[in-house]
Design goal:
Blueprint lengths: L3 E5 L5 E2 L4 H5 L4 E4 L9 E3 L2 E6 L4 E4 L7 E3 L3 H10 L1
Antiparallel strand pairs: 1-2, 1-3, 4-5, 5-6, 6-7
């Protein structure tokens, strides 16, 4: 059984909630065993990563308004590809 469920919100931001009920409300979703932070974002290198799929940008320590932009991890691209 997956311990989180990945989905894209209306702005095409990748989320990983623990409850399937929350993911199903957003349409297409997939089960995953990826680690996530308390906000529902993927943890990579100890940091929550906010991934904007349509913009193909990722940020740590915040979002596009106040976070640090990083290279998009290939695992997030692959996961998002399952949801498009």
């Amino acid at each position: 059984m997956a311990h989180s469920y990945a989905y894209l919100d209306k702005e095409k931001i990748l989320h990983l909630p623990t409850l399937e009920d929350k993911a199903v409300k957003h349409g297409k979703y997939v089960g995953t065993n990826l680690e996530y932070d308390e906000s529902g974002f993927r943890i990579i290198g100890g940091e929550g990563v906010v991934y904007y799929v349509d913009k193909d940008t990722a940020y740590v320590n915040g979002n596009e308004d106040n976070g640090k932009q990083i290279a998009v991890p290939s695992g997030l691209k692959a996961l998002a590809g399952q949801l498009l």
